Prior knowledge:
Elements: H1 2-7, H2 9-34, H3 49-77, H4 79-98, H5 103-117, H6 121-130, H7 133-140, H8 143-160, H9 163-181, H10 188-193, H11 197-206, H12 211-225, H13 241-259, H14 262-267, H15 269-275, H16 282-306, H17 310-334, H18 343-357, H19 363-366, H20 377-397, H21 399-428, H22 438-444, H23 485-491
Helix pairs in contact: 2-3, 2-4, 2-5, 2-6, 2-8, 2-9, 3-4, 3-5, 3-20, 4-5, 4-6, 4-9, 6-7, 8-16, 11-12, 13-20, 13-21, 15-16, 16-18, 17-18, 17-21
Amino acid sequence: MVQNFFGSYGSHWHRVHCRHHRSAISRFITTIRGKQGASNNEGSGLMDSYVFMISASMGTLLCPLTSILCGPLMDILGRRLVFKIYYSVSTIGYLIIAFAKEVWHLYIGRLCLAFSLGFTVANVIYLPEITTTSQRSLVLATINPLFSLGLLFSYVVGGYLRWDVASLIHTLICGLGLFSVLFLPESPAWLVKEQRPEDARNVFRWLGRNAAKIDGDISRLQTTGNGPVKRSIPLKQLRHATVWKPFLILITFHFLQTMTGIYNIMFYTVEFFRDLGTAFDPVLVTIGFAFSRFVVCVTVGYYFTTKCPRRVATAVSGFGSGAAYLVAVGYEVWWKGDRRFQWVPVAAVLVSCVFSTAGVQALPWIMTGEVYPLSVRGCMGGATFFVGNVFLFLCIKFHFALVEALGMPGVMTFFGVACLVSGAFGLLVLPETQGRTMLQIELGFMVKKRKPPPERKFRYVKEEELWFEPPNVDQASLEVQPGTEEEFAAKQP
């Protein structure tokens, strides 16, 4: 287990950096404009509002394209090489931003970061493939706490450091991540699919697997791998129920997750709490929001991810988050004129985000690495991330239009209803993957064959009971057979 955790160390940092460069640049620009003064912000004059809007949207714009590109690359080149591409491009992007002298330097750096962001799909594909069934939930459960830790880190760094210094810090972290990938083993599942079982055995030994179980693991991977990977997207396999069923379920889950507003609050935390009309400092509320998410992730969230069935976790997360939103809506309706108890909507939104952390926010991404067959896991994982990031881009781009059209009470009502629908979706539709092997999960999507008709039962019929003369054919083709009882018994096998 210790070696297994070390083997996925670089992959865990991969998720932290995803959270860093998804929100750090927009945090840097926001806090530079509003919090830091000119004396503490030399060289940041090029960070005007126009740059802010363009830079903040670049990540979500290019991420879907690189997500779908990442899938075939993982299947053709391996999971480990995708990690190297991610860290290399991220390091270059942060270096360009740190030493930017013109506006277009920021654009180029942000485009590099946006390009690398799509490769984060390799994280949720790689981790389930190097862990056992009992370890899988434990290791995947660390993704969400590290996600929240990266969020908290980016808020603090972006709020209290110069943008160029913060970019250099992220450059150093990405460089360390690239160095850690050198110690990562290749995915044994990918090695088996490439007909390299001996290399896969060596990886299993490095991970500390029991020698007696290695043969069984190799056999199961060969069963699900279906031979070496083709150098193209296996379009024929998309017709299989084990491929299109989980894809439809996951993209629906992603859509519902996006509609719950968790990303609207995450990307526009300061603006969201300011629109609530509270007197609290939005920046402090933002940091408190990130800190509370991290605490919940390492406690309650970790329990829900490792112990609770996926359906139960989604239901509790969706219904709890929806109820909290409705409390905030009730405050906005009943206390619209008199803004007493201003802590109520802030607390309700924080509670809603806490409940989302337990299931709805993390499971659509985590389950991407659990539900697909090995032969198409990379391609379909990338396709799922592509759709999820398209939804993310749309919800971020239309956030302010939604607030303007519905107002804050209407927006939170919309989010609350989406949370309730997500909870019902988890109970009724979501497949259960907790505690199941990858093969069991795959078999659960297969079309159930109809039961064969019951075998016909034959009985002895005396010749005088027949009103017609039977044809002279073999006994096996008849339901009845004339003759004496002794003759009938003698013909039986």
